[in-house]
Amino acid sequence: MSIIKISHEEFDSLDIERTAFVPEQAWFRSTELDLAGTVIRDPVDKDWAYVLLAKDEDGFYRYTGGEDSLPTKQDAESKLYASATRIEIVGYYEEELYTEPETIAQNEATLVITSIDDEIKKYLKKHPQKLYELSPRQFEELVASILKDLGFDVELTQATRDGGRDIIAQVRTAVSSYLTYIECKRYAADNKVGVAIIREVIGVHHIRKPSKSIIVTTSFFSKDAMKEAEKMESQLDLKDFTDIKSWLQRY
């Protein structure tokens, strides 16, 4: 197995970008990819979670996945191992999945997108299940395009894990401006956004202080995630698959 347990000191030497971690209990890394992880215990709820981090182009390891509200440390470690192994497998097979267009079966309806325009949005309005065929970056571009149509000035951040702000959106008036950070999660329908993501975004929000933060996902939010978001009152909005379908109705 290429996921190994390491010391706290070795984990810290990896230039981990921390935002809202609670006390860490165990540390891991992959010997195959620039991937690391930690198991943590919430000092308030007394439950367990794991966090996976991947190395960005600037050399820092940033959040790339995780799960919370787990009953034991063993559960958290097992799920970390399983998730990290899946990422390693996907990382290997991604290169194999790129084929020439003529090799794709003619009866397969594959969504191919080169740019986000109104025709794409009209198509997704009729076929919202095709949202799951977008790459994470294409999903960010879709959300940015919708926000632009709604009157925002938008800026996409680097195509990497940017921690709480995939999109920077702003509305300017003669009186003031309204800054919003949007975190996009293109997840499978059965992969709910957990409380770890909420805490990640809350951490960035408190540091950078936009007017509002929004998490947009093709999936849904866990009960714990929604409960955690309530602590931010009007400063954090959660938008799921149902909301995206509603946005697409305008096209």
What does this structure look like?
The protein has 251 residues and is α+β, with helices and mostly antiparallel strands. 33% of the residues lie in helices and 26% in strands. The chain is built from seven helices and ten strands. A five-stranded antiparallel sheet has the order 1-2-3-4-5, sandwiched between helices. The protein has a five-stranded mixed sheet with strand order 6-7-8-9-10, with helices on both faces. α5 links the parallel β8 and β9. α5 runs parallel beside α6 (223-229). The longest helix is centred in the middle third of the chain and has 25 residues, at 73-97. The radius of gyration is 19 Å and the shape is globular.
Structure summarized in a few sentences:
With 251 residues, this protein is of the alpha+beta class. It has helices spanning 8-12, 73-97, 118-126, 136-149, 195-208, 223-229, 241-248, and strands at 3-6, 24-30, 35-41, 48-55, 61-70, 153-156, 167-172, 177-185, 212-217, 236-239.
